[in-house]
Amino acid sequence: MPTGQELHAIPSDETLSAVSRGKELSPATASVADTARVAATVLAPTLRGGVIKRRPRAMALADRLQLDRPGIRLLGRLRERYGERPLQLRIPGRSVTVLLGHADAGSVLARTPSPFTPATLEKKAALSHFQPHGVLISDDGNRAARRGFNEQVLEPGRAIHDLAAPWARRIAERASQPAAPELDWDKFNTRWWQLVREITLGGDTAEDRELTDLLGALRLDANWAYARPKRKQLRNRFLDLVRQQVALNRPGSLAAAVNATPADAATDPAGQVPHWLFAFDAAGIATFRTLALLASHSQAGAQAHAEATAADPSEPRQLPFLRACVLESVRLWPTTPALLREAAEDTAWGRKGTTYLVSTPFFHRDAQRLPYADRFEPGIWLDGRAAEQPALVPFSAGPGACPGRDVVLFATSTLLANLLRRYRFTVLDKRLRPGDLPATLDHFTLRFALEPAG
Ligand code: HEM
Known about the structure:
The protein is of the alpha+beta class. Helices cover 47% and strands 7% of the residues. It has 17 helices and 9 strands. The protein has helices spanning 4-7, 32-49, 56-65, 68-82, 102-110, 121-127, 140-154, 164-175, 185-200, 210-222, 232-247, 254-260, 273-296, 298-309, 320-332, 360-364, 405-422; strands spanning 28-29, 87-88, 96-98, 116-117, 182-184, 338-343, 355-359, 423-427, 447-452. The strands form 2 sheets. Strands 1-2-3-7-6-4 form a 6-stranded mixed sheet. The protein starts with a helix and ends with a strand.
């Protein structure tokens, strides 16, 4: 079983592109018409769906029209036309370059934060609505200390976190609560957030919704980035609540780990927690989609059931197959469809300030390169096939990769194991055709019938 570290390793010299070996190919320049096409089919649907908080109506429309597919096809056609080199768009007043080569995408992520910083203009504008000191939008001065702090608390590279035992017990308790014969997103999501509050802040926060409701409101503002003024009072109320909750130091929570980890004031330890709460939303979405994949693929479903029933999931343990299934759900439907980096200095590709876009739906579903592009193939995360691909990056890659990935993979795989032990799930629609999976999957409208597992 590869560790989280191996799964998201920095690409080797072999997989790195010419740019990182010092033989940079200068970018091609897109025609005005191609720039307009990228804006309409790649950028606009991502923004419309809600980058920071998904919008149910926009997601339903995107699913009906399969809005991710035209963007994937367009970038493939542009690669045929312009070659694998980066493609600079013609956007007045901004320098934006789309990466079309897998190796280039891996290379940019590997060269984070210098010269390519993750703290881009757009991310700062959006995320500062609710996490002004988060590592992802921190500039050079604070980034290293905040990144180090996140790694110490979240323990990337360790499949079983120090706090995994109390989390596994909580997850088993939640999964054993009585369930209605039908499971929809609202029911799942209510329980998911109870768990997120318990894991992040501790035991008796399960029913305390004020903090996460405030976060929800601020995230809707964040979708608009600079187009919506900050609601400073609301943000201060939210950040104060986070600080108060973290200070309560409840045992078994990430908050307790925050308090036990030395940090200077500039790191703002409690100020890292808003990003974690926000990002657990993506983990809930990924879990729900994984459930749908397993329910509609009988062989993988049986393998997952066998893993789930092999031992008591209220004890923390490695669940390699279920972890791979969650990774595969995020490959198929990336929760960060636009990975952005900004050049902090002039590079051979362009001037300082240029924004680089790694469109994950394009790379993850690249049928020209991946025989399994539109199939559910969890095995790629276990047999080395995914690791050979520098642009299969559900949790990003390199020094800016998600430090929460092993917490996520532990929590989601453990929850899935508990659910699969108890119930047989049937998806109540026919969207997930094995072998030809949709490019867009609206999780809000997924529904399952539940029967006790035999
Ligand atoms: C399915 C769930 C998740 C996915 C797919 C995911 C994916 C990602 C991705 C793609 C990035 C890079 C973003 C960028 O470069 O713009 C990222 C960054 C980050 N993630 Fe996650 N994430 C998830 C959940 C979490 C959770 C639950 C936590 C914390 C408990 C977390 C903590 C972070 C942090 C702190 C960063 C910023 C890292 C940095 O700037 O160095 N993530 N995540």
